[in-house]
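Ticket #4471: structure export looks truncated?
Reporter: QA, pipeline team
Priority: medium

Steps to reproduce: submit the single chain below to the structure queue and open the exported record.
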Amino acid sequence: MDLTVVAYVIYLFISIGLTVWVARTLSHNGRVFIGDVLQGNEKLADAVNQLLVVGFYLVNIGFVTLYLRSGEEITAARGLFEALSVKLGVVLLVLGFMHLANVWVLSKMRRRGIMERQQTPPVAPQGWTAPAGV
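Actual output as written to the record:
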């Protein structure tokens, strides 16, 4: 079997496995943030979380498949490891970037939700004041 094909198979197996692991981790732990932002609306939090996971899969698996092609033929075991290390390193960097972007977006959403809750008075006002100059 051609070593280039072996490299492709190993690359796809590891890259897709890493993508699934990161997506599950984000989904499991991000649900808490989304639930907090949506003020306890569990059904909506689950729906938003699932949509984010699907988007994460589409972007990352799309990148993995686009980055599959190798510019040179692999003829030795050393070349196999070198090609895999470069490809997997790039995939890990993209996954890390996507993870940080997701955490940043969830943090912004959570911060906005907290600020909106703080602006709402805890008790309705008891009275009113007349406008000045009347």
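Status: closed, not a bug. The export was complete when the record was re-opened. Leaving a note from the reviewer for reference: Residues 111 and 124 are 24 Å apart (CA to CA).
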